[in-house]
Amino acid sequence: MVHIVLKGGDVLCADGQVRQTDIAISGSVITQIGTITEQAARIIDCQNKLIVPGFVNTHTHAAMSLFRSYADDMMLMDWLKTKIWPAEENLTSEDVYWGTLLAIAEMLKSGTTCFTDMYFFMPDVAKAVAESGIRAVLSRGMAGVAPTANQALAESENFYNEWHNAAGGRITVMLGPHAPYTCPPDYLKKVTALAEKLGSQIHIHLSETAGEVADCQKQYGKSPIALMEELGLLDHGVLAAHCVHVSPEDITIMKQKKVRVAHNPGSNMKLASGVAPVPDMLKAGICVGLGTDGAASNNNLDMLEELRLAAMLHKVHRLDPLAIPAKTAVDMATSQGAEALGLGKITGKLETSYKADITVFDMKEPHWHPRHDRLSLLTYAASARDVHTVIVDGKILLDNQQLTTIDQERLTAEADRRGMRLVNNSNTK
Amino acid sequence: MVHIVLKGGDVLCADGQVRQTDIAISGSVITQIGTITEQAARIIDCQNKLIVPGFVNTHTHAAMSLFRSYADDMMLMDWLKTKIWPAEENLTSEDVYWGTLLAIAEMLKSGTTCFTDMYFFMPDVAKAVAESGIRAVLSRGMAGVAPTANQALAESENFYNEWHNAAGGRITVMLGPHAPYTCPPDYLKKVTALAEKLGSQIHIHLSETAGEVADCQKQYGKSPIALMEELGLLDHGVLAAHCVHVSPEDITIMKQKKVRVAHNPGSNMKLASGVAPVPDMLKAGICVGLGTDGAASNNNLDMLEELRLAAMLHKVHRLDPLAIPAKTAVDMATSQGAEALGLGKITGKLETSYKADITVFDMKEPHWHPRHDRLSLLTYAASARDVHTVIVDGKILLDNQQLTTIDQERLTAEADRRGMRLVNNSNTK
């Protein structure tokens, strides 16, 4: 029994072509793409609308939305030490719940149907995911140098056992060792052993800044990528965030070990981390998805902006206007993002038997005219605020720009109150 | 008599501070900023809204909006020769009118109150500006190598005499020699003589690509900037678009001759032109505004996107997170942009006696929460689609997201029809 039909939209099909057609959804999946004559509980008129796979955000720290605009235009370590870390010390589990919900609201309203999180108080993150209806891949961030190092391992194991494949399969769990510079080799070996025991994959920050790569070379005589290979970490299915400063040798290892990359152009630009060699990675056949990173370092969670930056940054950096064409950027934000999370058979494509994770753009505004090429319009001209309808796992979570599972007014009031409290407390320190 | 009051908004004042206060408008100007108790024909509740000077777009080719998404991800000369130039040959004066109106609609809806245009069929551009109510600085583009070279000079003179300071002062006119590589020295001398005769300023493309700078060096033994100085062109008040490939010596000349720069980060990224040394120009005390360039090479006319790119691109290019802070980027999009057009005493600031050119952002969406710093939110998190109200010259042109002087539905239908015709014609050539 068909419960939703999207009628007459311009659909980005799995073959990369845009065609005017219908989509039928039954339960949580797409059951047909083509002319649908069947009745349905809900028929959505999609004339003059562009229908694309929901965006997949492969790297963020959702609850950091509470620190959005708190501290910008600063040197990284100054920003962390004087602003972010002191403020984070004040975070309660309730703050993390509300901060995550704020991030989810923003992501749904800008067309994201699946995100990847690494933070703490993860059961509260999972609760926000479960309640809101979005899809997510969650990791308890672990720092081997912190006093909570062993506690983080234990929490990760419990969190995996409790939440992996929970919420009707919408939540999957990975282990989240923060980075080689916060997790010494002995600790990473424990993480690897735990991954082996649980059969879980790993989400980690690798080679974000030139400084950390130089330190790693100095301390261990090899790059972070090569060090991870030596420790056996790369044998467990790794999602590596950033990979800005990777060498051709690193890329060879990454390809061989099937490392998937979360590229965060907005964060890399704003924090002045550098430009990742994404065209080289793609040429090597490495899977590269896109991520927003946390709202404190971006400062929004707009995947369309990341998609556009991916298409534009590498052109100017390589002085090559063909560096990352529109179609490649769209793939990175959707199907490659899903692959990067190990969900390539589940989401990221509009195809029969895939989960109904769908974003519908309204094309009425002037910047969508004339329409010579819809993928080009999406990549270079559209706004995430043109997102009209968002469906996740067959449920409508954004209906004509209104959230259906989240009370936006209450949420933003809570976020304002909590954001101010966190910062005021940290300022008095 | 006060005719509009903006009540209780968060106002970006001329001193760079954001304060909650009121703004009174009488006729075309701001008459008071502070607590207003007077009655007014229209009172707009601006609680939870951010009020900023309207954005000033210092460089575009408005009617090229008809070629939006027609050809992307191509080499520059290939793009021009096989796509844009053949399509432009089909343009009629009516197409230019409708293409300009499409651009104006998009600009108003994204908070731009003044734009700078260089194109042809300029009386039709002026008609669209006059009817829509926006402010503009217009130039008839002139190419000395084209068969229309002398005609363009005559048209420029007529256009200046007819339209400079027209539409209640909303339109000013500059001369628009296209670039040194399309205007040989003899022709530029004629342009300079005409500028002298009329007392007009000059809008020109300078040093956009490395190739044109190399060619200029080869042909004339000096850079485009040095060549323009030699020809006396820089003595007439020059707005120079791009200035991507300028040397320290060029920057010294630019400072000395008070050249103002239109920086177009989006176009420079997408066309892979390179990264302009904007931090060096600003440090030298050169006035730098922001521009979108034409929609065929951007592909939208969203000044907030340019503002954000200006803040982010130079950070990653210089590996310096302090390169262009939020406040500087906002200044470039507003007050410096107005200065660049010679309108620094007219627009670009919220100050008593300035023209009421004002953009009001609605801060209700999740990406505006929490609000630790409103300028940071505007620069790094906001969307141009959050623009709620736009006032130009004291008239409300966008009222609760609705255009008041343009029939959007008719406009987009016309634009679609004309855009398709232009391209179909050019394809059969």
TrEMBL record, chains A, B:
The keyword Metal-binding is annotated on this UniProt entry: yes
Keywords, comma-separated and alphabetical: Hydrolase, Metal-binding, Zinc
Annotated Zn(2+) binding sites: H59, H61, H205, D293
Domain of life: Bacteria
Gene3D superfamilies to which the protein is assigned, alphabetical: Metal-dependent hydrolases, Urease, subunit C, domain 1
Any GO MF annotation of the entry: S-adenosylhomocysteine deaminase activity
Cofactors, names only: Zn(2+)
Catalytic activities: S-adenosyl-L-homocysteine + H2O + H(+) = S-inosyl-L-homocysteine + NH4(+); S-methyl-5'-thioadenosine + H2O + H(+) = S-methyl-5'-thioinosine + NH4(+)
InterPro entries membership: Amidohydro-rel, Deaminase_MtaD/DadD, Metal-dep_hydrolase_composite, Metal_Hydrolase, MTA/SAH_deaminase
Cofactor binding comment, as recorded: Binds 1 zinc ion per subunit.
Known EC number: 3.5.4.28, 3.5.4.31
Family membership: Belongs to the metallo-dependent hydrolases superfamily. MTA/SAH deaminase family.
Protein name as catalogued: 5-methylthioadenosine/S-adenosylhomocysteine deaminase
Organism this protein belongs to: Sporomusa malonica
Gene responsible for this protein: mtaD
